[in-house]
Specification:
The longest helix is centred in the N-terminal third of the chain and has 22 residues. This protein has one domain. It has seven helices and no strands.
Amino acid sequence: MKFLVEHFYIFLSILFAISSQLIIKWKMNSVDISGYQTIAEKFTFAFSMLFNPYIMLSIIFTLLSGLSWMIAMSKFDISYAYPFTTLGYVLILVLSAMLFHEQIDIYKILGIAFIIVGIYITSRSI
């Protein structure tokens, strides 16, 4: 429990970041961009999506992630804290499978295992 309390802002930063990405994926799944052929059309469409309330929420979550990270940086060395951000990869993989029915294969499972082992090894330095 002490570990979680001490690392609250690192985990909060990760949760805001993955929430932002999941919202963007959810909203972009609901639109068809095949009609936009040129780069200018695609950027115009992407810019127009900035006015979608969910995308705005996503941007706020990204900002909150950065603010949480700033607080975390006041508590830990970056060489210690940064490896924890890879937990975002693990959570995105699991949540994308649950929410968007994306496939998880053996290579992704092995990748997750390596990430978790790497976080464990680097977290031993405190």
